[in-house]
Write a structure and sequence with these properties.
It contains 17 helices and 10 strands. By secondary structure, it is of the alpha/beta class. It folds into 2 domains: 2-199, Rossmann fold (3-Layer(aba) Sandwich); 210-346, N-(1-d-carboxylethyl)-l-norvaline Dehydrogenase, domain 2 (Orthogonal Bundle), CATH 1.10.1040.10.
């Protein structure tokens, strides 16, 4: 593993040049990788593994998601099976169903965790909160993780574009002496651009904080607050949306993604620079207590329990669709839909 300086802190990183695809194929040449679940991460990881030349099968209950797997080219009875049969056939079980579903399916998976197999996660939830999930693997199997830092859709799109999403990796239990090598091979196989070392607890704490924070929850809260203030002061929906969302996503985010926030600031007007530098402090001071409260809620298991309880309720998906529909039909995102249609590339 390479040692990289991240702002004065040195961390271990694995790159595709260091652990090659050829080496990954050699490591897993005798393995059957059973991807359990074809929801969020399942399609991207399984298809990337298959395209990279690994022996992959998919385990999925029959229904709409099973039909999607068939539409993606998986063949029933050949490389697409019911969950239990896939678990029986797999030497590496990639446990990619949702966190709540992992609790439900665990007895089936555990039954087929015979000595020497590997249990693979892309999230530290089930293991870290084992007192709530009941997921305690037997001692004679490897327990490993590769967690792509992006959605399964992004993982697949970037793979097809010849790029890759960065991933974190961890070994929780090494029963065979080859857990690390299996982990790195799988990380390369699913299409990681590079991989940084973590552990299951740190991964889930940072992941739950990030999703509820700047990645999803906080960003929607901040965008809607600014949009509402502009509208309440007489600005039109198009102007409010453009100054809140469109310029951020289409112009500014690519700049700081490319070379950092200072680069983005340097490529904006002096008026914008001054305002950004003056106001980043008040926003930091106003939001840091919220992030601290959020992190503590993750660390004490409150967020995990909320997720387990909510996602296990009958009718959960119907309720979720109502919440997403309300978001989709809000003026902010209806304005967004109209603005997107006007982008030059959509002519």
């Amino acid at each position: 593993m390479a040692t990289i300086n991240f702002g004065g802190v040195y961390e271990h990183v694995v790159t595709r040049e260091e652990f090659t695809l050829e080496q990954a194929r050699k490591t897993l040449k005798d393995e059957v990788i059973a991807v359990i679940g074809y929801g969020v991460q399942g399609p991207g990881q399984s298809l990337n593994l298959k395209d990279n030349g690994f022996n992959v099968i998919v385990g999925q209950r029959k229904g709409k998601t099973y039909d999607k797997a068939v539409a993606d080219g998986w063949i029933p009875g050949v490389n697409l099976f019911e969950i239990e049969e896939a678990c029986e056939k797999g030497t590496i079980i990639q446990y990619l169903v949702s966190d709540a579903a992992q609790i439900e399916v665990w007895p089936v998976v555990k039954k087929h965790l015979t000595p020497g197999k590997a249990l693979y996660f892309s999230h530290g939830f089930g293991i870290t909160y084992s007192d709530r999930t009941g997921i305690v693997p037997p001692k004679d199997v490897d327990v490993i993780m590769v967690a792509p830092k992006g959605s399964g859709t992004s993982l697949r799109r970037l793979f097809l574009a010849g790029r890759g999403v960065n991933s974190s990796f961890a070994v929780y239990q090494d029963a065979t002496g080859k857990a690390l090598e299996r982990t790195l091979a799988l990380g390369i196989g699913v299409g990681s651009g590079y991989m940084f070392e973590t552990d299951f607890k740190r991964e889930v704490y940072s992941d739950l904080t990030g999703e509820r924070g700047t990645l999803m929850g906080a960003i929607q809260g901040i965008l809607s607050a600014q949009y509402e203030v502009l509208r309440e002061h007489g600005h039109s929906p198009s102007e409010a949306f453009n100054e809140t969302v469109e310029e951020l996503t289409q112009s500014l985010m690519p700049l700081f993604a490319e070379k950092g926030m200072d680069w983005m600031y340097a490529n904006c007007s002096t008026t914008a620079q001054r305002g950004a530098l003056d106001w980043m402090g008040p926003f930091h001071d106003a939001t840091k207590p919220v992030f601290e409260k959020l992190y503590n809620s993750v660390a004490d298991g409150t967020e995990a329990q909320i997720s387990i309880d909510a996602n296990s309720k009958p009718g959960y998906r119907e309720g979720l669709e109502k919440e997403l529909k309300a978001l989709r039909e809000s003026e902010l995102w209806q304005a967004g839909a109209a603005v997107r249609k006007l982008r030059p590339e959509n002519d």
